[in-house]
């Protein structure tokens, strides 16, 4: 079992240690205190209603002061040392989650205003958390061992449950931005979790399509489940198939590199996964990231985004957990920029074919995991399941 220990930083923010299942000693008896005496936390920024699109926009000008690519010896998420009182008041840890000191949302909680129209604004309620994947300053998620990967998954799962229960939260979004090209402001391998007080625009679009399909089948099927079946039957875009998870490049991929990782069992979110599913996910996800990293000689920037069912009475029954990993990299030395058609119109033009990307991801040589990926094999080239 992952060891979970919650504490508070000097400004009251919550910090939670997730210790690998193999760690024998309990942390609870010897927690170290954050002695930095940080100033009290500020008020939330604001959300403004964009009447033109029926969407909320968070205005977080206070975040301009946040840490930007600090030198390694001043890293805020390395373990604390005599010369660096970091955000993590411990000499060692495995995985840590803590409230962001410069949040886009929160720290106060509550609902967005009702009956929004032009001019409607309110506090940017919600919560933003940072997930440090490892005490090591350099490296990537793909370099974590299977045990540490499993601990991160346990952290995502526990935080999804906890954040979903907080006042006013409508969507919980764990994600990782990897690479300076994506706008990363810290090199230390880490991810984030946003808990929004509204359903985000993208989740709203996906949720509406999912609900429409769910209704058309009288609640007997889900859209994501049907797409997973269709991709596995077709086979030409499959990247890997496991016992509990499969990954494929979607039929109509938008990005030069886009992979969806989907559980075989319909679950709304990471908190609903069982132990065996999490065990396999820990290895499947590592394998997927190793494949992405093996495509080019230099690290590929990516966004790894967990789509979880919104906490919304209409959308949630049709929701289905899945990961969307996307990258703008279209060649060793080329990134796709979102320009006129994509950025202004949302009309994507993909310069790669999903089938060729899947073929590359299947056939790329991947360094072995520290633990063999049990009961899982990459689909042979061109073969269906
Ligand atoms: Zn660091």
TrEMBL record:
Matching Pfam families: GalP_UDP_tr_C, GalP_UDP_transf
Domain Galactose-1-phosphate uridyl transferase N-terminal: from-to ranges: 47-199
Recorded metabolic or biological pathway in which this protein acts: Carbohydrate metabolism; galactose metabolism
Biased composition (Basic and acidic residues): 32-43
Keywords for the protein's UniProt record, in alphabetical order: Carbohydrate metabolism, Galactose metabolism, Metal-binding, Nucleotidyltransferase, Transferase, Zinc
Record-level Gene Ontology MF annotations: nucleotidyltransferase activity
EC number of this enzyme: 2.7.7.12
Annotated segments matching region Disordered: 24-43
Cofactor: Zn(2+)
Catalytic activity: alpha-D-galactose 1-phosphate + UDP-alpha-D-glucose = alpha-D-glucose 1-phosphate + UDP-alpha-D-galactose
Domain Galactose-1-phosphate uridyl transferase C-terminal: 222-365
Enzyme class: transferase
The family this protein is said to belong to: Belongs to the galactose-1-phosphate uridylyltransferase type 1 family.
Name listed for the protein in its UniProt record: Galactose-1-phosphate uridylyltransferase
Taxonomic classification: Bacteria, Bacillati, Actinomycetota, Actinomycetes, Micrococcales
């Amino acid at each position: 079992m992952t060891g979970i220990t919650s504490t508070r930083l000097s400004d009251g923010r919550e910090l939670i240690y997730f210790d690998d299942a193999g760690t024998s000693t309990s942390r609870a008896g010897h927690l170290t205190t954050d002695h930095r005496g940080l100033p009290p936390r500020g008020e939330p920024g604001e959300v403004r209603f964009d009447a033109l699109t029926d969407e909320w926009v968070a205005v977080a000008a206070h975040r301009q002061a946040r840490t930007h690519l600090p030198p390694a010896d001043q890293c805020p998420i390395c373990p604390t040392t005599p010369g660096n009182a970091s955000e993590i008041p411990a000499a060692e840890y495995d995985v840590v989650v803590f409230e962001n000191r410069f949040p886009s949302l929160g720290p106060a909680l509550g609902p967005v205003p009702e009956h929004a129209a032009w001019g409607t604004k309110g506090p940017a309620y919600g919560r933003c958390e940072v997930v440090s994947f490892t005490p090591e300053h350099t490296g990537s998620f793909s370099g974590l061992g299977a045990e540490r990967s499993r601990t991160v998954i346990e952290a995502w799962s526990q935080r999804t449950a906890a954040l979903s229960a907080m006042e006013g939260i409508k969507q919980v979004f764990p994600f990782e931005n990897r690479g300076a090209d994506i706008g990363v402001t810290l090199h230390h391998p880490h991810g984030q979790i946003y808990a929004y007080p509204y359903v985000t625009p993208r989740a709203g679009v996906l949720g509406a399509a999912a609900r429409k399909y769910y209704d058309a089948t009288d609640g007997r099927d889900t859209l994501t489940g049907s797409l997973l079946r269709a991709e596995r039957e077709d086979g030409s875009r499959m990247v890997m198939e496991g016992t509990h998870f499969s990954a494929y490049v979607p039929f109509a991929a938008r990005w030069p590199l886009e992979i969806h990782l989907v559980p075989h069992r319909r679950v709304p979110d990471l908190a609903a996964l069982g132990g065996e599913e999490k065990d396999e996910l820990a290895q499947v996800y590592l394998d997927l990231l190793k494949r992405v990293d093996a495509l080019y000689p230099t690290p590929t920037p990516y966004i790894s985004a967990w789509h979880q069912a919104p906490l919304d009475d209409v959308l949630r029954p049709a929701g289905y957990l899945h990961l969307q990993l996307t990258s703008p990299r279209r060649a060793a030395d080329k990134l796709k920029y979102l320009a006129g058609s994509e950025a202004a119109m949302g009309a994507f033009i993909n310069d790669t074919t999903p089938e060729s990307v899947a073929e590359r991801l299947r056939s790329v040589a991947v360094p072995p995991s520290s633990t063999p990926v049990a009961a899982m094999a990459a689909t042979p080239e061109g073969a269906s399941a």
